[in-house]
């Protein structure tokens, strides 16, 4: 951690600083939180860098990361109407098998809730997000059941778009 912090502090450009941040972000705690906040304060005006910042946190395999990602949905720089922000944060989160596919179902619930919200704003993006459930039958019985519950919840949503309906119904039927 000390080496990564030294690299972060002495970096001469964003790429070097981000590489050090990536190492720091894998260990939960105050240091991680402080450095993530520092990086954001330095780069908050560059939306592409902020997207990388969201993705870095979303893909983290630290235990219980779903809570961090849920909090980031409320971050001032996050906009559910912006597809790139959604892909960075929500799709990035789905890339973490440790947290998206956790046995308590919190990752699946988070995605299910996000798909329903997104469907009202951007059905195309929502359908891409619901496709993360398409491989639900490849997992153990516990995860299989938890994913199925979310797919059924999505299917029961009033005024579901055709885009999301098609992906969710095909996923359930597979």
Automatic annotation (TrEMBL):
Residue ranges annotated for the Peptidase M1 alanyl aminopeptidase C-terminal domain, each copy included: 2-173
One Pfam family hit: DUF3458_C
PANTHER family named in the record: PUROMYCIN-SENSITIVE AMINOPEPTIDASE (PTHR46322)
Protein name, per record: Peptidase M1 alanyl aminopeptidase C-terminal domain-containing protein
Source species of the chain: Ilex paraguariensis
